[in-house]
Design brief:
The N and C termini lie far apart (76 Å). The longest helix has 17 residues. The chain is 46% helix and 10% strand. By secondary structure, the protein is mainly α. The chain folds into five domains: 115 residues, 3-Layer(aba) Sandwich (Rossmann fold), CATH 3.40.50; 107 residues, Glutamyl-tRNA Synthetase, domain 3 (Alpha-Beta Complex); 92 residues, Glutamyl-tRNA Synthetase, domain 2, CATH 1.10.1160; 50 residues, Helicase, Ruva Protein, domain 3, CATH 1.10.8; 94 residues, Arc Repressor Mutant, subunit A (Orthogonal Bundle), CATH 1.10.10.350. The radius of gyration is 32 Å and the shape is elongated.
């Protein structure tokens, strides 16, 4: 394929949902797979829904995800401007062309008149419930008013819109890469507004004009735009332009599979739906995000790629680098059905990427949390802590949750663990272990472990009878990594101090 050009064209009406990120990702993968260009275009023609900060949020979020553009607001390019509100003069030319061809017409109906029309149609139980070739004959537009009256209204700067002239009983045959051939009768469509009285086009006109002028070869977008495809086909035909190839992606569904995934589902289920943190400009409320929750961008992207797409028969692999995704990606492997989002599976992806991260990189990130908690520690010490906890961690925050005892001695001890493992002779056993540890000169894992185990075997005690209470005293619970790794990392003075404190605290209880 030659001149492959794809675009991601979000509206700055709020934060970017993970479904939008997946759409951007699939466009990106397709473009890179075919040595094409990937463009970011901001579709801000609906100024009434514009949300301050949303545009920057979209670009910053995609940057965090590692989705890069060849052209766009920040990148520049030869096909700009890349913000639709800066292209309004371009659209005027093309809407006038449609009017001149008789493919579009002026309409002057007020909001009240449109509402009256709908109510009358409902009362009449009419099979027609929209503004089309039937109902437009009773409304205020180019079909019912003289040319002189139309010109007078426009010259007086009275409000108007331009609607598309949908032909009657025309069979529209469309091709979708994912869904195959789709056929629609034009009589089921309404005369969509293409141009508004504020001097800006609607999505439908701007989308078609921009895709044509930017030489977009493939349009990959969400299935919510599938009902608009017949209109877009008719617009391309009206202009006499070559159509791009279309592909409409299936929805990302709620975890129960019933309906489209939303922010409300995330709030209820305790999982994020936004890539990075979003602060509502009206309420200052912050929304949970994958970045701030602790997901690696690579894990987030890997997870999204497998929502609706598969690598093909015989490939059971689930962990892919971006380069591997680019090599394997084809639109034909995207399914038609929606994909259920599984929060636990998302965590699983992050866990896999956690295991792949070098310890020094994880230590740098964890060091930020340690400092926030009010502690200072050598980065080499933090890296050793990370190495012990890494296999049990899903997020960076888990290093603190599961290993805060490396930085502060436990003040309390798990009551259930104490009740289970603390016996009448436990104190004497631990005092013996303390004496053994105090006598060890080389306080590394191997030496301390050998000395303690040697004494346990000589004393004919069970390992659990010794190790579990000792662990409780050092970390506050009966869980954690290898005990003697903990002992070696804490050091002799700290270990002995914790044993003394714990024995005193538990004796009081």
């Amino acid at each position: 394929m030659k001149n492959i050009r794809l675009r991601f064209a979000p509206s700055p009406t709020g934060p970017l949902h993970m479904g939008g990120v997946r759409t951007a990702l699939f466009n990106y993968l397709f473009a890179k797979k075919n040595n094409g260009k990937f463009i970011l275009r901001i579709e801000d023609t609906d100024q009434t829904r514009y949300v301050k900060g949303a545009e920057e949020y979209i670009m910053n979020s995609l940057e965090w995800c590692g989705i890069k553009f060849d052209e766009g607001i920040r990148e520049g390019g030869n096909y700009g401007p890349y913000r639709q509100s800066e292209r309004r003069e371009i659209y005027k030319k093309y809407v006038q062309e449609l009017v001149d061809k008789g493919k579009a017409y002026y309409a002057f109906d007020t909001a009240e008149e449109l509402e009256d029309m709908r109510k009358k149609l409902e009362e009449q139980k009419s099979s027609v419930q929209q503004y089309n070739f039937v109902t437009r004959t009773s409304m205020k537009n180019s079909f019912t008013l003289s040319k002189e009256e139309v010109d007078r209204i426009i010259s007086n700067n009275e409000p108007y819109v331009v609607r598309f002239n949908i032909p009657e009983n025309h069979i529209i045959e469309m091709d979708d890469i994912i869904r195959g051939r789709v056929t629609v009768n034009s009589s089921t469509l309404d005369d969509k507004v293409l141009f508004k009285s504020d001097g800006l086009p609607t999505y439908h006109l701007a989308n078609i004009v921009d895709d044509h002028l930017m030489e977009i070869s493939h349009v990959i977008r969400g299935e919510e735009w599938l009902p608009s495809l017949p209109l877009h086909y008719l617009l391309y035909e009206s202009f006499g332009w070559e159509k791009p190839q279309f592909a409409h992606l299936p929805l990302i569904l709620k975890p129960n599979g019933k309906g489209k995934l939303s922010k409300r589902d995330g709030d209820a289920g305790g999982f994020p739906v936004f890539p990075t943190e979003w602060t509502d400009p009206d309420t200052n409320e912050k929304s949970a995000s994958y970045k701030e929750t602790g997901y690696f961008p690579e894990a987030f992207i890997n997870m999204l790629a497998l929502l609706g797409w598969n690598a093909g028969d015989g490939i059971e692999q689930e962990i892919f680098t971006v380069e591997e995704l680019i090599q394997l990606f084809t639109i034909e492997k995207v399914g038609k059905s929606g994909s259920k989002f599984d929060p636990d599976k998302a965590k699983w992806f992050n866990e896999q990427y956690m295991h792949q991260q070098p310890n020094n990189k994880l230590a740098e990130q964890f060091a930020v949390i340690v400092k926030q908690k009010g502690f200072s520690a050598d980065i080499n010490f933090i890296e050793k802590v990370v190495s012990l906890l890494k296999e049990r961690a899903v997020f960076i925050t888990d290093f603190w949750t599961g290993g805060s005892y490396f930085f502060e001695a436990p003040a309390e001890f798990d009551e259930k663990a104490v009740k289970k493992f603390w016996k009448e002779d436990t104190k004497n056993i631990i005092l013996n272990v303390k004496n053994i540890l105090a006598a060890v000169n080389n306080f590394d894992t191997e030496t301390t472990e050998n000395e303690v185990k040697k004494w346990i075997e000589t004393s004919e005690l069970g390992f659990g009878k010794v190790m579990n209470p000792l662990r409780i005293l050092l970390v506050g619970s009966a869980s954690g990594p290898h005990l003697f790794d903990i002992i070696a990392l804490l050091g002799k003075n700290e270990v002995l101090k914790r044993i003394d404190f714990g024995l005193e605290k538990i004796a009081v209880k």
